Automatic annotation (TrEMBL):
<feature type="compositionally biased region" description="Low complexity">
    <location>
        <begin position="1"/>
        <end position="47"/>
    </location>
</feature>
<feature type="region of interest" description="Disordered">
    <location>
        <begin position="180"/>
        <end position="207"/>
    </location>
</feature>
<protein>
    <recommendedName>
        <fullName>NAD(P)-dependent oxidoreductase</fullName>
    </recommendedName>
</protein>
<feature type="region of interest" description="Disordered">
    <location>
        <begin position="1"/>
        <end position="68"/>
    </location>
</feature>
<dbReference type="InterPro" id="IPR036291">
    <property type="entry name" value="NAD(P)-bd_dom_sf"/>
</dbReference>
Length: 207
C-alpha cells in the first residue's frame, strides 16, 4: 500500500513549514525599516489572512472580535501574529501607522459553505482598503475583513470605525453551495474553526 498521501504533505509544524514562514517574517521586517528611517508621517497596510484555531461562533453567540486572543494554527499563521506585533512596535517606537487587515476570504464569490461566513467581495475589499489608507489617527489598528454576511462570524466594529461600510452579502450564493456541499458539520474541525481545512489538510507551502 502506498504511503505517499500521508507523507507528501507538510505538517503545519514541520521543518519545511518553519522554513517557509521565516522569509515571510523577514520580509515584513524589511518592509518596515525604510519608513522607520524616514520617520512619520507614513502608513503601512498589512494583509493578514486568517489562520486560527479559534472556534466559529454558534447560533446566538457574539461575533468574533479582533481582541480575541490569537491562536495560530500553522507557522504561516504565526508569522501573521509576528506582523501585527511588529506593526505595534513600529507605531510605539517610530510613530508609523499601520492597519492590519485580517482577511476572511476575498474571492469573486464564495466557494464553500464555510466561506459564506467569512467572505469578502473584491468590491468590499476595495472599500476596506480605502478606509484603511484614508482614516486619520489609526496608530496601529487591527480590523477583520469581510462583507456584511448573513452568516457572519467576524465582528467588523473596528473596521467600521475607520469608515468601512460593507455593501455585499454572501447569502445569494448559499442555496447553490449548500445543495452541493451540505450544511456545516460542527464535529468537523475544518468546519468548526476559523482555520478551516488548514487545520486538517494544510497545503505544502507556505503553511
Amino acid at each position: 500500500m502506498s504511503t505517499r498521501s500521508s507523507t507528501s504533505r507538510a505538517s503545519p509544524w514541520s521543518p519545511r513549514s518553519r522554513r517557509s514562514s521565516g522569509p515571510i517574517s523577514r520580509a515584513r521586517t524589511t518592509c518596515t525599516r525604510p519608513p522607520a528611517r524616514r520617520g512619520p508621517p507614513y502608513r503601512l497596510r498589512l494583509l493578514q489572512p486568517r489562520r486560527r484555531l479559534h472556534p466559529r461562533p454558534g447560533d446566538g453567540d457574539p461575533l468574533i472580535p479582533v481582541e480575541t486572543p490569537r491562536r495560530p494554527d500553522t507557522y504561516y499563521g504565526l508569522s501573521k501574529c509576528f506582523g501585527e506585533d511588529l506593526a505595534q512596535l513600529y507605531w510605539e517606537k517610530h510613530g508609523i501607522e499601520t492597519v492590519s487587515v485580517r482577511i476572511g476570504s476575498c474571492f469573486p464569490e464564495p466557494t464553500s459553505v464555510r466561506m459564506l461566513s467569512i467572505w469578502m467581495s473584491p468590491a468590499d475589499g476595495a472599500r476596506l482598503f480605502h478606509a484603511a489608507l484614508t482614516a486619520e489617527n489609526v496608530g496601529h489598528t487591527v480590523v477583520n475583513g469581510s462583507s456584511q454576511n448573513t452568516r457572519q462570524w467576524l465582528d467588523l466594529t473596528s473596521a467600521r470605525a475607520l469608515g468601512y461600510e460593507p455593501q455585499d452579502d454572501s447569502e445569494q450564493y448559499a442555496g447553490k453551495l449548500i445543495a452541493e456541499q451540505g450544511e456545516l458539520d460542527p464535529d468537523n474541525p475544518a468546519h468548526s474553526s476559523l482555520g478551516g481545512p488548514f487545520l486538517t489538510d494544510p497545503p505544502v507551502w507556505p503553511y
